[in-house]
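User: Show me an example of a complex going from sequences to C-alpha cells.

Assistant: Sure. Here are the input components:
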Amino acid sequence: DTGVSQDPRHKITKRGQNVTFRCDPISEHNRLYWYRQTLGQGPEFLTYFQNEAQLEKSRLLSDRFSAERPKGSFSTLEIQRTEQGDSAMYLCASSGLSGRALYNEQFFGPGTRLTVL
Amino acid sequence: SQQGEEDPQALSIQEGENATMNCSYKTSINNLQWYRQNSGRGLVHLILIRSNEREKHSGRLRVTLDTSKKSSSLLITASRAADTASYFCATDAGAAGNKLTFGGGTRVLVKP
C-alpha cells in the first residue's frame, strides 16, 4: 500500500504523560501536514513541512507540541504533559508538487485517535 | 478557526435519492476540495475544483463553485448506503504550503 500511514492508530494515556505519533507520507511527496480533529468538527491545521523544514505552525500548536521531519521523509508529532483537552484525532496528510504547482491534493492517513484520561 | 460553513449539518435520504450539500467560505481561494470521512476514519479526497472553474464532475459527484458568492455545492446522485459518511469542504487559499481550512461537515445518512 503506497498511501499515507500513521502509527499508532489509537493511543490511550494518562494526563501528564508524553506521547509521540508517527506519520509516513506517500514516498514522492515533499509536503507533509498535521491536522487535529475533535469530535463533530472538521480538521484544523497544526503545522506543515516542506521536505525537512517546518515552515508554519498554527497558534493551536502550544509549546507542549513539537513536530519533526528529520530526513524529509517520515514525521513525528510529540505532545508533552498531555491534557484532557488534547484528546482528538491527529491526522497526517501529504502532497506533492506537480506541473500545476498551485493546485495540490492532500492525501490523508487514517489518523491517530488520542484519548487522555 | 474554520473558514467554511456547511449546510445542512445533517442530511437523511433514501437510497437512490440525490444528496446536495453546500459550503460557504470567507476569503479568496486557489481551489476548493471536498472530502469524505467514514466514522472514525481518515479523510478520502473526492474532488478538487479550481477558482477559475465553475463546475466539475466525477462519477456520481457534481461540484459547483461560485467565487462571487464564496460558495460551493456538492451533489451526490443516485445515492447508495455506502455513501453514508461525513462530507467536508476545504479551501486552499494558497498560503502556508497550501494548507487546507475545513468546514464543520455535513453528516449524510443514506437509508437502504
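The lines above are the inputs; the final block is the predicted structure for all two components together. Chain B touches chain A at residues 2, 4, 30-31, 33, 35, 40-45, 48, 50, 88, 90, 92, 94, 96-105 (CB under 8 Å).
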